[in-house]
Amino acid sequence: MASPSFGFLSKVRKRITPSPSDARAEQAMVRRLLREIKKTKGPHLSALLCGSMARNTHLRGDRDLDIFVFYSPKLKRESFEKNGLQLAHKIFGKHFHEEVYSEHPYVRGNIDGFDVEIVPTYKVEKASDKLSAVDRTPFHAQYMRKHLSKQQCGEVRLLKQFLKGIQAYGADVKNQGVPGYLVEILILRYGTFLKAVQAMSQWKNNTVIDLEEQHSTPQDALKQFNNTHLLVIDPTDMSRNVAAALSFNQFARMIMAARQFLAAPKERFFFAHESPSMTLPQIKSHLAMQELMGIHFPFPKETVEDVMWGQLLRVSKKMQHGLEAKDYCIRRHFFWTDGQEHAFIIFDVENPSLQSSKLRIGPSVFDATHVEHFLRAHPKPLSGPRIEEGKVVLEIPRAFPEFKGALKEEAQLTAQTEKSPLREALHQFALLDEGQIIALAKKNKSFQHALSAFLKGKESFL
Q: For binding CTP, which residues are annotated in this chain's numbering (predicted)?
C-alpha cells in the first residue's frame, strides 16, 4: 500500500501566508499606531505589538493587531485603568471602538480594516511578577521571537489552519479550543506540522508538555494542575497551563482528526469549516425526522459576546437538566447568538409527549419511617398505593405532559434565577416550534449555517 502523500501542503502554506503587500500594509499600520501612542501625553512608558502578527505566525486575512501599552507597576490600579482607557479612546478617535471588560478594561475596535485591541499592561521584570493576567503576554512575544525560526513560522501557520479547519482553534468560550500561543509551543516541541500532528494522534489523557522542564516530572506537574487532560506549561510562567481553555471534547476531537488526516491526508481538512449550509428543503427534510423546539430571546444589553457564549453554555445545560428531571429525553441541544440582537437555545427531544400520569416508586416496606413520609407526601394519587417488588408504588398527575409546557416552565424558572442583564433578556423569551425555526433560518444566513451544522451532526473529518 502506497504511503500517503503530503505534497499539497505547499499549496496550503501559500494560500494561508500573508502576501508581501499584506505584510507592508500591516507593518505600516503598526508603525502608525505605535507612533501615535508615543506622541500622546500620559504616564505610559512604551507600547509593543504582541499576538501572532508580532511573531509572524498569523494567517492571511487575520488582520488583528494587539497593542500592549506599558505602565509602571507603581501606578495605582485606578489610575492604570483610567489612563489606559483614555489613551485608547484618543488613538481610535472617530473610528469604531468599544470598551471591553476582562480582568481590567481595555478598548477594541476597527481602524482602516484592522481589528485593533489596545491593552494596558504593567511593565514587570518577569511573567511570574504579573500584577494582572495580561502582564505575561509581552513575555510570550519575546520568547517566541527568540526561539521560533522563520521556517517554523510557516509550520505554525499550517497547524493553526488545520485546527481552524476542524474548528478547534481559539481559546474563547465559544470554541473552547487552542490559542495561537499554544500552537507555537507545539511547533517548538515537535519541530514541524507533520510531527506535531503525528504526536497529537497519539496523545493520551493527562498529556504533559513542559518545554523548559520547569517541573521535576510530568506527574509532579499534573498534581499541581489537578490532572487536566492536556497540560502545557507556559515557558514564561510555570504556574500557568496554556491549554486551560481547551475542553475535553475538543481535546478528543483533535486526536481523532489527527488520526484521520494521517491515514488519508487531504486539503479539505484545512478548510472544512467553510462547508456550505444545508438548503431550506434539506433542513425541512431533517426536521421531519426529529423533534426540535427551543426559545429565542434578545441579546442582553451591555454584554460582551464572548461572555454571552459562556452564559448560553451554562443556561442551556441548566435547562436540559430541568427538562430531564421532568422525564424528557434530550438527545442533543445547541445554542447560538449573533452577538448583537438574537440568542437561541434549541433542544432535540426524543419524547415530546408523555403520559398524563407519572409513576413514583417509593421506599422499601421495611423502611417504615420513609414509607410514612412518602404516603403523606402523596395523599391523593391517581393510582395506588400498592406494593411491587417489596416497594410502595403509586401514580400521580404529571405537571407537564407536553414538552412545550415543560420548556416554557424551565425558561421562566431560569429567568428568575439569573442576574441582570441576562435575566431581563430571558424574561422576554418566545417559544420556537419547527416552523418558526425554519422561518428564522430563512431570514438569518448565519443561523441557518449553525442550524445546518447541528442537524448534520457530523464531524468534518469523519
A: 52, 55, 140, 160, 169
